[in-house]
Amino acid sequence: MIELHEAGVTVEVPGPAGTLERRVVLEPLTCTLTERRIAVIGANGSGKSTLARLVNGLRPATTGRVTTCGLDVATHGARVRSLVGFVFTDPDAQLVMPTALEDVALSLRRAVPDRRQREARAREVLERFGLGERAHTPVHALSGGQKQLLALAGVLATEPQVLVADEPTTLLDLRWRRVVEDVLDEVPAQVLHVTHDLQAVERADRVLVVDQGRVVADGRAAEAVAAYRDLMAVR
């Protein structure tokens, strides 16, 4: 469960004559997210990624409070991050080891201290995600879709309670978008999915529409998408 209590984000930006001005990135928001699959949509720069990053403290709230899995993110950040998996738009920003097997094994280093057991577990994870034959393939030699699937595999290997996916299909072709969406559908964790893909949004149990730093619609997919389309039509 994710709870936001008047949680907002402001930043300081350069102003005239060397001054600093405060800019609101996300207006204070209060809501409780209990649904299994939640989508967040909005125009570029609307604040939707900022909202997603509040969940595990990648972006600290400057006002209010955020609790995830019953823990205050500000005071229990390390514990929260062990319970929340995060998948980025570009898998190259997330994959750090030379091969697929090594990358998944790195994710398991805390949960499985023994090296041999960790490698065996990593192989099982790769098999489960259809990447077993790519275990020793250099990460840079994988296709974009395989990289994103590997990034997901590494995150899900730790069995997080919450998965935040920040536009994970933006760089993918249609085939790989469907593969990634199917994986997200099957994740047992609560999923917070930031996306521009309105077809993917239809799978969500709840949808938040973010515009200019505010949540302007919150509800079922059909109603939220309609509100988003209306919003974009007048821009």
From TrEMBL:
Keyword field contains ATP-binding: yes
Cellular-component GO terms for this entry: ATP-binding cassette (ABC) transporter complex
Which SUPFAM superfamilies does the entry link to? P-loop containing nucleoside triphosphate hydrolases
- Domain named ABC transporter: residues: 4-234
- InterPro entries associated with the record: AAA+_ATPase (IPR003593), ABC_transporter-like_ATP-bd (IPR003439), ABC_transporter-like_CS (IPR017871), ABC_transpr_CbiO/EcfA_su (IPR015856), ECF_ABC_transporter_ATP-bd (IPR050095), P-loop_NTPase (IPR027417)
Keyword set for this entry? ATP-binding, Nucleotide-binding, Transport
Picking any one GO molecular function of the record gives: ATP binding
Give the family per the record.
Belongs to the ABC transporter superfamily.
PANTHER family reported in the protein's UniProt record: ENERGY-COUPLING FACTOR TRANSPORTER ATP-BINDING PROTEIN ECFA1, HEAVY METAL TRANSPORTER
What is the name of the protein in this document?
A: ABC transporter ATPase
UniProt source species: Actinotalea fermentans
